[in-house]
User: Which sequence fits this backbone?
């Protein structure tokens, strides 16, 4: 690149800027360019790359560009958090784990609550984190016991005649169950 910086008394002042190879990696896409930019900030502007405060970059924006400079950018992933009947979409810092997201959102897990993906999972773009509140309740239900019919043959009656001597009545029994709920919906039960 040749820059004509000024002309003084018919003398041409020429400044020569040497392009140097620079490698830029942003979220696993790598390009190598020849650049005359002076700083990382200038380079990113030339390439049309915008970074925000949650994105990570391996060099300061005012760092000088030299031959062989490698600029690595990790963009803040966008995540969706579903918990407690609410859904939130947000950007988080790269390399954030599910556990850190829950902590930053002030979400405390109960002993039996379920989280997907696992707490130690590092978030990637478009990850959905789901918290299911799990409760187990002891419930007692009354179950009907149907009455039974007994047939007794008697010589006092004509063959084939049926007579009710004692009317049957359904019985009842109390049954204790453990019912597991996820976000208020019963998902299993055991007697």
Assistant:
């Amino acid at each position: 690149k040749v820059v004509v910086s000024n002309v003084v008394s018919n003398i041409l002042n020429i400044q020569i800027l040497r392009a140097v190879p620079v490698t830029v990696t942003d979220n696993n896409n790598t390009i190598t360019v020849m650049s005359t930019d002076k700083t990382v900030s200038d380079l990113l502007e030339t390439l049309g790359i915008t970074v925000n405060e949650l994105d990570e970059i391996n060099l300061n924006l005012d760092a000088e560009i030299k031959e062989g400079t490698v600029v690595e950018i990790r963009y803040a992933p966008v995540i969706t958090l579903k918990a407690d009947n609410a859904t939130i979409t947000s950007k988080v810092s790269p390399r954030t784990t599910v556990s850190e997201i829950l902590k930053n959102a002030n979400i405390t897990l109960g002993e039996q609550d379920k989280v997907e993906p696992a707490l130690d999972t590092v978030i990637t773009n478009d990850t959905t984190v789901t918290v299911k509140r799990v409760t187990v309740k002891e419930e007692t239900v009354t179950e009907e016991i149907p009455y039974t019919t007994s047939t007794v043959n008697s010589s006092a009656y004509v063959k084939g005649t049926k007579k009710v001597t004692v009317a049957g009545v359904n019985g009842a029994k109390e049954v204790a169950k453990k019912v597991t709920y996820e976000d208020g919906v019963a998902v299993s039960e055991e007697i």
